Amino acid sequence: MATANTRNLWRFTAAIIKSPTDLTAASPFGGTAMGLIGDFVFAVENAHVEVQAEEFGGVTVDYVRMGEKAIITGVLRTWDDDAIGAIFPNTADGAGSNRKLIKSQVAGAGMTKPGKLASAGSFKLLIASDAPDHSPSLLFYNAIPMMDTQLRISATPAAEAGMAVAFRAAPDAAGKIYHMGLLEDMSL
What we know:
The structure is a single chain. The protein is mostly beta strands and 188 residues long. The protein is built from one helix and ten strands. The strands form two sheets. A six-stranded antiparallel barrel has the order 1-2-3-9-7-6. The longest helix is centred in the middle third of the chain and has 7 residues. The radius of gyration is 20 Å and the shape is globular.
C-alpha cells in the first residue's frame, strides 16, 4: 500500500462514450462522445440471502451471494445530440436547427410506443476518466439508457442547467456487467 496522498483523490470529468471499440486509442476510444455527465453517482446493490441454522434457533450463520444491480445516474451537462438520441425514446431532428428535438408522445408515425423493452437501445458505455493513468474509469458492457426516474431540468441563474439521466447495467452475451479500474487493465 502506498502512503496516502491527496493527488490520488478521485477527481475527474466524467465523459460519456457510447460503444467504444478501442480502449488504447484517444478519446472517444473509437466510439461516440456523448458529452459530460455531472453529479455522477455509480451505485451497486449487492443482493444476498441469509443462511439460518435451525439448530441455533434460526441464527444467521452465512450468506449466499446473489447477483448485482448496477446503475449510473447523473445530470447531462451538455445538450449533445448523440446523447439525446441515445437516451430518449422519441426524438427527431429539428426542422430549423437540425438539432435533436425530444418528442414526448405515445402514438404517431415512427414513435416508440409504451410497452417496448428499453434494452432495444442498449450499448456499451464508458465513463472515461480524464486522467486514465491515475483515476479509474467505468465500463458497462450492456447499458440500458433512460431518463432518471423523473426528468428534472435544473435551471437557476447560479448554476448550470442539466437533465437527470440514468444508465442501468444488464449482462452482455458473455455475462459481463461492468468493470471499474484503469483503462489499461480493461478489455472490451
